[in-house]
Amino acid sequence: MSLLPKLWKIAILLCIPAMVTGCWSSVELNNRAFVNLVIVDQTDSGVELTLGIPLTNRLIPGFTGGTGEGGGQEPIAYVTRTGATLEEALQKIQGDIPRDVTFGQTHSIILGSRLAKQGIAPILEFVERNPLLRLNTNLFMVEGPVKSKVARMPSSFERFLASVLNGYIRNDQILSTTVKDMMYSEASGGDGLIPMLSFKTVDPSAKAGSPGGVGTAGAAILRKGKMVTNVLSPEETSSARLVLGQLKRYIYSAPSPTDGRNVGFYTSSLRTEIRPFRTRQGLGVTISSYSDAGIIASDSDIDLRKQQNIELLEKEINRIANKSLMEMIAKTRKSGADVFNFGHYLSVQYPKEWKTIQQDWRAYYKDRLEVRVDSVISLRRLGSSTDSFHNKLKVDEKEGDERTWNLSP
Amino acid sequence: MRAKDNPMPVFANGDDGYPDTSNLEPRLEWFRSQLAHCSDIVIHPFTIGTGTACSLIYIRELFDYHDAEEHLLKPLIKECSSWNNDLSPLFVEHRLPSAGCRTLTAPSASMDWVLDGCGLLLIDGDSRMLGLSQTKFEKRAIMEAPNESVIRGPREAFVENLDTNLTLIRRRIRSRHLKIEQMTFGTKTRTSVVLIYLDDICPDSLVKEMKRRLACIDVDGVLGSNYLEEAIVDNPSSPFPQIQYTERPDTVSASVLEGRISVMVNNTPIALIAPVHFFTLLQSAEDYYQPFIAATWIRWIRFVFLTTSLLLPSFYIAITTFHPEMIPYSLLISVSSSREVVPFPALMEALMMEIAFEALREASVRIPKSIGQAVSIIGALIIGTAAVQAGIVSAAMVIIVSLTGIASFIIPSFDLGLSFRLLRFPMMLLAGIFGIFGIACGLIIIYVHMLNLQSFGTPYLSPIAPQVAGSFKDTLVRAPWWKMKRRPPTADAANRIRQKSGLRSWAEHSGEGED
Predict the structure, then answer these.
(1) Is B340 close to A57, i.e. CB distance below 8 A?
(2) Are B440 and B257 in contact (CB under 8 A)?
(3) Which of A176, B90, B197, B375 has the smallest number of CB atoms closer than 10 Å to its CB?
(4) Whose CA is closest to A350, among A274, A276, A272?
(5) B100 contacts: CB under 8 Å, gap ≥ 6
(6) Which class for A289: exposed (0-12), middle (13-18), buried (19 or more C-beta within 10 A)?
């Protein structure tokens, strides 16, 4: 008997908090415009905001490509407005779109280099304050005016440019920098790396299916939230990813120490340790990166059955890795941008010393910080063959019998 | 326990105007007046060997007249001549080759005897009457359970006839502890109702409680088990079934073996079982006939689809209208483009489709079989591609509704399926108004309600809440038979051991033998 009143009490109690959920109201899917890509650039007339919005009405299942009219149409719209500020441009876009602009599905933000040179703080501010924009939204940068390049980009593999970018991140093919990363570094000075995209100019009349126009390029160096002129090359970016522990599979070749012919490797980073240290001269950091390597091809005569040869190879690829790491670090030091947040490590480990150098940390980083790199690459996978094909063929030639190709070692 | 007699004047105490005489004719006249306008009543007068006039009163096609002719009329006509006009042995010693004879004196009892389908023999010169119990009427044959079919288990299902049904139980439990207590309900229908339980396993309190609740019932007719069910359940306003019903004698037997009590009503092929718990309703007879691994897996599937049937449409509504950022991007594009041409909000769309589905389901149960196919074809068009192509509903919604429909039929108990189907609608409204927050509120309300619910004094969510040790063995999984050593908590606490341990001890011994 007392059950129903009790239930009513609970129902009423649960309904009361419902009154305060003011920011929630239902919006139907077909009344939303899902922004999948945000492009921000600086033009002479102000901030130029471009939103990539998939046109779902052109993607109705069963209708795609059905009618002559709908078939050739791009399923995405890039809406661009320019305003004095980001907000103003956004308001202009919202004012012109009949649907509710929703940022809940935005995974990528592309910045124009001109804007990046002026500072990315407004973008971070915008993302931070918008509850729907995720903190793990990826940041990319493009050299030059972005809008015209993106609009002309035919995408062969994916329907949307945003999917291409997601693919790069998902498959670890590009340096990944999220808004959250930048916010962290903003707290300690605003230095960082942002991956760059390259758009190869493609003839607009080229058929769909011609090579995709977007590709990965190096990385831009940010100093105090602003892009500096120095840019990391794609190879240097790979080294940077090694430091960040993001390198999943990097393919390169190195000469064999035995005969100087090339051996092909791939490296996947396992983990990276950054340890600050203190010497009489001052502070320093050691970067130890641990990676796995494998051989994918070999032109060399090197006999991989011998442990000492493997060790020789390991030594060689470690030397290459150390060299390229040092070059990359040198470049960032030249720009005075502490992109790997060494300052943070130092401040935790040696707070007393940190206080003395905190004021001119960037100058310290540039000129005085001692950086040691210690790459530990272990050659784990030799492939299922110990001899190169090259070798086997040569052996057979010597014997003069072409029929006895012995493929199994 | 017999129901009170009807207060109407004619049948008031049944004996009004009954002539206090041993003469045949006035008594017959009374019966004739009482049974006037009953064209199925037969009053068959005849004279037996001693020259005494007799009359047999019975109902046509209910009383086995041919059997009576063989075992009553013939012996009476032939043999009674040797009794020297003293017919008392007939009443005292039952000198007739027919079982179930009874000497009756009260006219109302005799009248009931006739109305039960038995015969009544009146003899001139003796005020006593002889009741003959040769009933014979058309019954449905025992058939395969239409609503609870199994693959490996027994096929028999209950029929309408109570006596046949009781034989089905007795054949399964041949124990003297199996008690079958009969009662009669309905002043007009005088329906037999039996309580079936094992007196050593079933707690006494449960039997007493069942009798106490049944004692309050006083109706004119009981035509189905639900007449009683609604009167005896703990909380009739709850959407959840608090009494299990089944058409399978093996299910009743298994429940009785677990210390539960079954109520069977004559003329109904459905047995009631009490008490019942939520997790019991998710068990199917098939679970115990299949290997335990398969049965466990099926049970998990059932749990998944139980949730689906309650929540899938509401989650769809909540996520698409309130939280689209939760959907993976490519899925969102698909769902969103399929919704593109739909003119209704997601809540409306879902309500429309779900109600259409409910109508289709109800129609398919009620429809005559000959036109059933037409309905299913039209139904498939309504809830199918035509609706999508017309741009009325989205393809995603069709998938949601069909999946929910299938899910609701996976629940073994039809009643529980019904209650979940019903609860789905308030959940959809909550989801449409408050999003996932609303769903959470709805779930809390349902959960609190279920926690409060009791079935014959036992918590509805037992044995999970409150937890009973080892209870997962027959709820979340179906443990192998050799592991289920104890009866569930429904059984009397003093008698909970189902089997001795070591059902598989041969495996250990054979291992030793090999060494």
Answers:
(1) yes
(2) no
(3) B375
(4) A276
(5) B132, B133, B134
(6) buried
Show residues of chain B in contact with A10, CB under 8 Å: 444-445, 448
**Which regions of chain A are under pLDDT 50?**
1, 64-71, 209, 211, 400-405, 407-409
**How far is A319 from A310, CA to CA, in rounded Å?**
14
Place of tokens 């429940």: B255
Task: Give the distance from residue B231's alpha carbon to the nearest chain A alpha carbon, in angstroms.
Answer: 15
* Residues of chain A with C-beta less than 8 angstroms from the C-beta of B438: 18
Q: Are A32 and A99 in contact (CB under 8 A)?
A: yes
- pLDDT of B108 > 50? The answer is yes
Q: What secondary structure letter does DSSP report for A72?
A: T
Q: Where are the alpha helices (DSSP H) in B116-220?
A: 162-172, 204-215
Interface-testing mutation among B240, B314, B323, B340, with chain A (most A C-beta atoms within 10 A): B340
Which residue from B321, B341, B445 is facing A11, i.e. has the nearest CB? B445
Q: In terms of C-beta density within 10 A (0-12 exposed, 13-18 middle, 19 or more buried), how is residue B49 classed?
A: middle
Separation between Cα atoms, residue B242 and residue B245, nearest integer Å = 10
- Determine contact: B444 vs chain A, CB below 8 A: yes
Name which of A18, A27, A36 is nearest B321 (Cβ-Cβ). A27
pLDDT at B301 over 90: yes
* Cα nearest neighbour of A107 on chain B: B329
In chain A, pLDDT over 90 holds for what percent of residues?
10
Q: Which two tokens stand for residue A300?
A: 């060399």
List, by residue range, all CATH 3.30.300.210 domains of chain A.
Answer: 245-409
**Which option is the CATH number for A245-409: 3.90.1150.10, 3.40.50.880, 3.70.10.10, 3.30.300.210?**
3.30.300.210
A7 to B445: CB separation less than 8 angstroms, yes or no: yes
Residue range A277-335, pLDDT digits in tens: 988 888 899 999 888 888 888 888 787 888 888 888 888 889 988 999 999 999 888 88
CB A224 within 8 A of CB A190: yes
CA gap A267, A168 in Å, rounded? 18
Q: Which of A8, A13, A19, A26 is best to mutate for the B interface (most B CBs within 10 A)? A: A26
Q: What is the pTM of this model?
A: 0.82
Q: A22 and chain B: CB distance < 8 Å anywhere? A: no
CB contact under 8 A, B441 and A4: no
Tokens of A100: 């509710």
pLDDT of residue B481: 87
Mean pLDDT value across chain B: 86
The pLDDT confidence band at residue B514, using thresholds 50, 70 and 90, is very low
User: Tokens 């105007």 identify what position?
Assistant: B17
User: Of A10, A105, A132, which has the smallest distance from its Cβ to B448's Cβ?
Assistant: A10
Nearest-neighbour CA in chain B from A23: distance (Å): 10
Contacts of B236 in chain A (CB under 8 A): none
Whether the complex's predicted ipTM is more than 0.85 is answered with no
**Is the pLDDT reported for residue B147 higher than 60?**
yes
pLDDT of B509 over the 80 cut: no
What distance in Å separates the CA atoms of residue B343 and residue B288, rounded to the nearest whole number?
49
Q: What is the separation of C-alpha A213 from the centre of its chain, rounded to a whole number of angstroms?
A: 18
Q: What is the pLDDT of residue B271?
A: 95
Contact A146, A110 (CB under 8 A): yes
Mean pLDDT of B275-298: 92
The separation between the first and the last C-alpha atoms of chain B, rounded to the nearest angstrom, is 66
Query: Measured between CB atoms, does B20 come within 8 Å of chain A?
Result: no
